[in-house]
């Protein structure tokens, strides 16, 4: 097993300093080693368009602002820290679950778009993905809070990669439940917290709602919803859902993360397991165990 953190910092500097007409092809070349993360898309993908849709750094403006942000990321050793965090986290995970299959990993770290208010305000300048086996994606704006959480963010996405890897939990887009994703976010945060503590390990978007009972009840009411088309609103909230044309359900940003953390914490307390030991825990078992403690009169 090898971990390859693509050295995208110099590539992004070249792109931002290149003539505008040359930037799209330079971006395609930078992203190409991680293009396998899009292998489940039904049609051929345009890597430049996906970069734009994912709030990646712009190709037609804000060059100096982006170059300064890249300097901040380089000064914080983002790429080195990601690699070391993944190595250390894998050692912890394999000690807990020695039979889990660990794929070769390719990690793409990208600067975000400072002109995208949704990215900066709603998602707090951080989006990431570890759902496709063998690939991790981190897109960030170097707010101090995000730089402090670089390791925890990478480890959170690693947890997803291993949970849905070969021979592990099966994610069927047609039948998977909201409960599975909510639990997976809670488990991934719990793993990051196991390694880095609560302050850094919680995904930032979920923190404001960790003790919101109305949010908890609303998300719990949707745990049985199946088919991932409508998951965005239940897990990420209405504002993010609106961005992608998904109907709202009445939830704030990060609601599913907050509820996932509460469910998983209750499950781990009840079973005495660590987050690493619970990597492949059945989401229905997690939910049932947690709700028997958190909402005993309603189960």
Automatic annotation (TrEMBL):
A Pfam family reported for this protein in Swiss-Prot or TrEMBL: DUF2268
Q: Which InterPro entries match?
A: DUF2268
- Which parts of the sequence belong to the DUF2268 domain? 95-287
Q: Which domain of life is it from?
A: Bacteria
Descriptive protein name? Uncharacterized protein YjaZ
